[in-house]
Here is the input.
Amino acid sequence: MTKVTNVLIVGVGGQGVILASEILTEVATKFGMDAKKSEVHGMAQRGGAVSSHVRFGPKVFSPLIAVGDADILLAFEALEAVRWAHYTNKDSKILANDLRLIPTTAFLSKGTTYPDDPFAELEKSGYHADKIPADQIAKDLGNVRLANTILLGALSKHLDVPEEIWLKTIEARVPKKTIELNREAFQRGRGAL
Here is the structure.
């Protein structure tokens, strides 16, 4: 990779956004890139919005992604994809979990409503998101906590990093008894697009 890659990961507290950003940062570092991340835990334990900026490349000077500069927006929840889409541009990819989990911030903000179809809202605003049924795949695998590994698998399809680096990094971060299940979840995520 010769340029800096900007990945914005967003979701709701408890979904594993922070863990996913830590794994991505570690993957980039193991691939020989300079990597930096920054995260906002806004009421994370109470179901509030969570965001994490991850930037990696030959040399990264700041962890923050400017509006319009995200190469990839990875949304763990559909409304968060809508709320953060302005960080993307015409060449960006938006990967969004097909999950409606209303963030606390949507209840607390006056004038904020949850759209009937967040993906239609994105299209209406000129954005396109690849819909990933991560939570349904996780349920099919028997463990809803696998959704973040599934989403990382989908993300990996858009980054030029060997699959084995992803798998070894994930394996080091999950309980030993779930390694095979996480490998399967990662592969299912790669095949979801």
About this structure: The chain has a mean pLDDT of 91.
